[in-house]
Amino acid sequence: MSVPQDKKTAAGPQDAAVPAISIQGLVKSFGQVEVLKNIDLDVMPREVVCVIGPSGSGKSTLLRCVNMLEEPTAGKIFVGEHEMTDPDVDIDRARRSIGMVFQQFNLFPHLSVLQNLTVAQQKVLKRSKSEALQTARQNLERVGLAHRETAYPAQLSGGQQQRVAIARSLSMDPELMLFDEPTSALDPELVGEVLAVMKGLVREGMTMMVVTHEMAFARDVADRVVFMDGGYVVEEGTAESVIGNPQQERTQAFLARVLNPTSVQEGDEFTAPAGADRGAAAHAQPDPALDARFSRGQDNG
Ligand SMILES: Nc1ncnc2c1ncn2[C@@H]1O[C@H](COP(=O)(O)OP(=O)(O)OP(=O)(O)O)[C@@H](O)[C@H]1O
Ligand SMILES: [Mg+2]
Q1: Which of 108, 111, 182 is nearest to 143 (CA)?
Q2: Which of 67, 147, 178, 190 has the highest count of CB atoms within 10 angstroms of its CB?
């Protein structure tokens, strides 16, 4: 594992021994169609793994298998000590350590920001109202939205709604976070604020698995980049190697399309990844100002 020590504090020896996520021989079929074909992948504690690849390659299915939103056809999945694929596992309990953020924010439209953050804490974690409120406010602070706690989702921009969704996940005290294209539904000018919040989590040492088309983000924060195509992990390694110097032809072709969408010729075999147009082209430059604003007070390591 390559966790730069300037970015994160070192994991303890026990942390280092057990992967946060261990995916072993994972196969997933929908009917006759096999969409994940024998995937092996470990994510170590505090590691950030970005998953990239064309539309339909199985990225979301992989992420959804980790918390058993999809049931694997074969193979095993461990999250920390829990075997998620064990039929006897207490799946609700095992899932509690996993936060998930989707492309669509999935906030409750009829609840205020604060209520969106407290409801599951009280129902699932059985926290008292005051405890839930305190945790919620801490996490709104973390995503730069302390001043919007009484707003309703419809009164917020997409970027703000996604930051609320992240804060809601964090309020459940997850040990690891799964992100499935968290910025793909956003207008281009709102992408940076969400990525800045995610970078703050990286700096805090959160274990993260992120499906993204934001290549600049992946280069910046990923300890490891995994390129998927056709249900396989085709190539994996550091961001520098996979994005900067890909070895496999399919990785090269994908990156050429994503990093330079206008280069695609009429008649090229091409499945557009959702958000690819915004992904690399519009956001190749990180936004240091936003970064500073949203990470203030978080960067202790
Ligand atoms: N519930 C389902 N039933 C049947 N087929 C499905 C289901 N979910 C996904 N698939 C198929 O599995 C394949 C992989 O889908 P998946 O959503 O994992 O791809 P992806 O890499 O996340 O794509 P995108 O970049 O467009 O989000 C696709 O061919 C898709 O049509
Ligand atoms: Mg997907």
Answers
A1: 182
A2: 178
